[in-house]
Automatic annotation (TrEMBL):
Pfam families: M20_dimer, Peptidase_M20. Residues 180-271 form the Peptidase M20 dimerisation domain. Keywords: Hydrolase, Manganese, Metal-binding. Its cofactor is Mn(2+). Belongs to the peptidase M20 family. Mn(2+) binds at residues 94, 96, 128, 156, 352. The Mn(2+) ion enhances activity. The lineage of its organism: Eukaryota, Metamonada, Anaeramoebidae, Anaeramoeba. The keyword rRNA-binding does not apply. This is Metallopeptidase. InterPro entries: Amidohydrolase, Bact_exopeptidase_dim_dom, Peptidase_M20, Peptidase_M20_dimer. CDD domains: M20_Acy1 (cd03886). Signal peptide: none annotated.
Length: 379
């Protein structure tokens, strides 16, 4: 096992060097396919730049699946590590290089392990854009191309926790989310004659302020909801009121119905505000359900996790979101967090940070847990 973990640490470095964005994980998936084929897996390409790897042994009918996301972020790396990104402006700042390495290690382990049944390892592009799993499940028709798994597990490295920590949360783990892109179109004018304009900055500002009433006045304080406007862009001159502005943001909740209801109120607020001033708008919304772990799937691996971990954390939740939630809506399973805090003070233990470098020592805990699950379910 230690030799396998050492191999995973080296392969992690290779993938950390070649981060790719969104659904365009071309070189990453090419490398994954080659490695998994070498381990004896049947590799099936799935839309877009994802793949599923299948290995059957014996006559067992049980089917177990693991999923790893592969995409990176549009962030310029500042870790200064020896295996830093070679792709300028792109970085594995969310630990997906770690996920790839653990999943490949599962393949490496499985080739020499005498299990009984079917093992499926899913490598997914586009998690950060929240469309990769949807593309795999809908456009790629993933479930029509594989035996349906009895159980599916995913792992996410989590720098909030020390190496050796495993997070086992029953029920909601990560928030339901939606992302919006809004364009407000008014009428431009000189800054000295605002009465001749339909000022999109004023309109947008009112929407930014008023939308918080959805959280503070239309939502129970016992039912958490986050609504954040994260971008507001318009204009380029000191004396010109622009014709339009663009805004972006996100909703987060553990309650799918609350998020959907809040979206409807938000859209109504936008339409009413724009109509009052004579402006028009275009809005795009894309949502994900809550990442909800099946209680039975957590119970099933609890003792295994205790065997391989230094510490177990229960009932942890985060307002971050994950498109693994779409898999969990179709297959019984769970997402597990693995502590990966890097003790080197020159790194910053925050996901999506240019100085985030998860500790490679975390890999062994994920690999050992996956191996234990294979041993239990496919015996």
């Amino acid at each position: 096992m230690e030799e396998l973990i050492g191999w995973a640490k080296e392969i992690r470095k290779e993938f950390h060097k070649i981060p790719e964005i969104g659904l365009e994980t071309v070189e990453t998936v090419k490398k994954v396919k080659k490695i998994m084929t070498g381990f004896g897996f049947t590799v099936i390409p799935i839309e877009k730049n994802s793949c599923v790897c299948i290995l059957k042994k014996g006559k067992g009918e049980k089917v177990l699946a693991f999923r790893a996301d592969m995409d990176a972020l549009l962030i310029s790396e500042e870790t200064g590590c020896e295996f830093s990104s070679k792709n300028e402006g792109c970085m594995h700042a969310c630990g997906h290089d770690m996920h790839i390495s653990m999943a490949l290690a599962v393949g490496n382990f499985a080739q020499g392990y005498d299990f009984n049944g079917t093992l499926i390892v899913i490598f997914q592009s586009g998690e950060e854009g929240c469309d990769g799993s949807e593309v795999m499940l809908k456009e790629g028709k993933l479930l029509s191309k594989i035996p349906k798994p009895d159980l599916i597990y995913g792992i996410h490295v989590w720098p909030e926790f020390d190496v050796g920590t495993t997070v086992l949360t029953k029920g909601p783990l990560m928030a339901s989310s939606s992302f919006f892109q809004l364009q407000i179109k008014g009428k431009g004018a000189h800054g000295s004659t605002p009465q001749k304009s339909i000022d999109p900055i004023l309109i947008g500002s009112q929407i930014v302020v008023n939308c918080q009433s959805i959280v503070s006045r239309l939502t129970s304080p016992f039912d958490p909801l986050v609504l954040s406007v994260t971008a507001f862009n318009g204009g380029s001159s000191t004396n010109v009121i622009p014709e339009s502005v663009k805004m972006m943001g996100t909703f987060r909740s553990y309650n799918d119905q609350l998020r959907i209801r809040s979206e409807k109120v938000f859209i109504k607020m936008i339409n009413n505000t724009c109509e009052m001033y004579g402006a028009t708008n275009k809005i795009k919304l894309k949502g994900l359900p809550t990442t909800t772990n099946d209680e039975g799937a957590i119970d099933y691996i609890h003792d295994l996790a205790k065997e391989v971990s230094k510490k177990i954390v229960y009932d942890y939740q985060t307002m971050a979101s994950e498109d693994f939630s779409l898999f969990l809506h179709k297959i019984k399973g769970a997402l597990i967090f693995i502590g990966c805090k890097n003790e080197d003070q020159k790194y910053v233990n925050k996901l999506h940070h240019p100085k985030n470098l998860p500790s490679s020592n975390a890999l062994g805990y994920g690999i050992k847990l996956f191996a234990k699950i294979i041993g239990k379910h496919l015996k």
